[in-house]
Amino acid sequence: MSTFQAPKGTYDLIPPVSATFLAVREAIAAPLKNSGYGYVETPGFENVELFARGVGESTDIVSKEMYAFETKGGDKLALRPEGTASVLRAALEANLHKAGNLPVKLWYSGSYYRYERPQKGRYRHFSQVGAEAIGVEDPALDAELIVLADQAYRSLGLRNFRILLNSLGDKECRPVYREALQGFLRGLDLDEETRRRIEINPLRVLDDKRADVQKQLVGAPMLRDYLCDACKAYHEEVRELLTVQGVAFEDDEKLVRGLDYYTRTTFEFVHDGLGAQSAVGGGGRYDGLSEMLGGPALPSVGWALGVDRTVLALEAEGVELDIPPATSVYAIPLGEEARRKLFGVVMELRAAGVATDFAFGGRGLKGAMKSANRSGARYTLVAGERDLAEGVAQLKDMESGEQTALALDTLVAEVTRRLG
Q1: Predicted confidence band at 57 (pLDDT cuts at 50, 70, 90)?
Q2: Residue 269 three-state SS
Q3: Cβ neighbour number for residue 121 with a 10 Å cutoff
Q4: What predicted TM-score, i.e. pTM, was given to this entire model?
């Protein structure tokens, strides 16, 4: 056994499970690629201040969960705990918003890091696919992103997820609500840390999962009663657009999400088969984040979907993805001359786009056939000295057991034809 193990709260992705994770990432990305979103990749670590400003110093992510460190040169950095702040920073740095084609539509995929108590569905290292639409304030853009996430989940075969929807208002109406909420919360019996949160970001108290806190929140003022006419109209249009597209959602007046930058549209994808960690993804509008990061006013909206939790949701529903085997043809040489000849054939098949593997190590036929079977290959290609003398190789269908002698000079074309 190895001396070393993966750090606590992390995991390794290894075959065959890793194929499922790749398939989930590709399924989430597919509707984005089809809707004008271009791929962006940012560093795994950023300046600590980027997250302190963007995500919010009062959030658990920044105050408790960030992996922050100082370099030998004195730079204060942090492993990225989420994707939006990094992607917006990259877009601003590259001046993508000045290219004249707004919104700037970007999608990304990668690993993120938070120091949390590890449990099923919550890891210290996790994987997300995200999308951001930067520079336009339009309810149709909010609706588009929710529809794309819904399409991605349904393409995977998921059915038992729910979409929670809310509006957090804007800089005009939210301050009035904030003041009313603070007045209500100050009268509750809460611990010191929660009381500090009341003064910094009272909306986060509504998201507190503790039963004793939720019990006291009955009768708290609701944001819907404080929304200005513009926010009401905006939210209603998002709701109507989703309804027209047949995307079901539930209004959740307490949905605030865990990040400070959200405004207006806020949404979450939850799956009831995951227990406590029911959120599989979420997002919302963040119209003021660009200015927080020192950029111009760029109203934007985005989401991130958890790959890990999506895989768990698939398992909870008993959905098995149709993942093709990694190998279509497995070549088995019998003898030194056959090894050289079939190695060349393998390269030709690969060049023709056929996933092909080779029996390395000079194993006998019995052992090599076991390896071929484990590989999931549809066909095995076997050749010995007698076959080469006749200018053929034996192609065996691993499903039917049928074996056919094929001329070496037509082999690649015939195998390609059979595989369709």
Answers
A1: low
A2: strand
A3: 20
A4: 0.89
Report the DSSP pairing between strands 250-251 and 263-271. Answer: unpaired
CB atoms within 10 A of CB 82: 21
- Is 398 in contact with 325 (CB distance < 8 Å)? no
What's the pLDDT score for residue 200? 80
Q: Which residues of 148-182 are buried (b: 16+ CB within 10 A; e: fewer)?
A: bbbbbbeebebeebebbbbbbbbeebbeebbebbe
Non-local CB neighbours of 117 within 8 Å, separated by 6+ positions: none
Average pLDDT, the chain: 92
Return the number of other C-beta atoms located less than 10 Å from residue 293's C-beta: 18
Of residues 328, 334, 340, the one with CA closest to residue 412: 328
Amino acid code (one letter) for 374:
R
For residue 52, give the DSSP letter.
I
Whether the Cβ atoms of residue 385 and residue 359 lie closer than 8 Å to each other: no
**Greatest distance between any 2 Cα atoms in the chain:** 93
| CA dist., res. 382 & res. 374, Å (int) | 16
- Whole-angstrom distance, CA of residue 362 vs CA of residue 336: 9
Joined together, the tokens standing for residue 358 give 């080779």
Contact 102, 136 (CB under 8 A): yes
Residues in the chain: 420
Please give the Cα distance from 154 to 161 (Å, whole number).
9
- Quickly count helices (H) and strands (E) in the chain: 16, 16
Res. 140 pLDDT band, cuts 50 70 90: very high
With both helix axes pointing from N to C terminus, report the angle between 139-155 and 229-244 in degrees, rounded to the nearest 10: 30
Q: How would you classify residue 74: left for phi > 0, otherwise alpha for psi between -120 and 50, otherwise beta? A: left
Among the listed residues 281, 311, 277, 274, the one whose alpha carbon sits nearest the alpha carbon of residue 16: 311
pLDDT surpassing 60 at residue 163: yes
Which residue, chain included where needed, has tokens 């004195």? 74
